[in-house]
Amino acid sequence: MTSLGLRTYRSIVREVNRAAIVPRATRNPIVLSTFHKLFKLNKEDSGFEQDMQNAVVFMRSQRMHKTLVDRYNPLHDLTAEERIKATARRVGLDMPIESKGE
C-alpha cells in the first residue's frame, strides 16, 4: 500500500470509528476487515484511492451535518406534539391542559 493509500485507509477507519453508535467491543469487525481487504486488492489503482478519499470526505461531512443539525435545530428529533409544546414554551406560552372527557 502506498503512503497515500495507507493514509486514506487510516482516515476511513477513523471515520468509521467516529460514526459508530455502539461501544468498540460490540462492533462488527467485518466492516473494517472488508475495508482492509479492499485496500489490499486495489493497491495501485489511483481511481480506487480517489473514490476512498471521496468516501472519507462524505463520512466526515455527514458527521458534521448531524452535529450542526443537533446544535442549531434541537427540535428535529421530537414528535409533532412535543415540538408544538417546545415551540410554545420558547415564546413564553404553555399549552392548555386538555380535560379528560368521560
TrEMBL record:
Organism domain of life: Eukaryota
InterPro entries: Fmc1 (IPR039196)
GO biological-process terms attached to the record: mitochondrial proton-transporting ATP synthase complex assembly
Any one Gene Ontology cellular component term annotated for this protein: mitochondrial matrix
Annotated protein name in UniProt: Uncharacterized protein
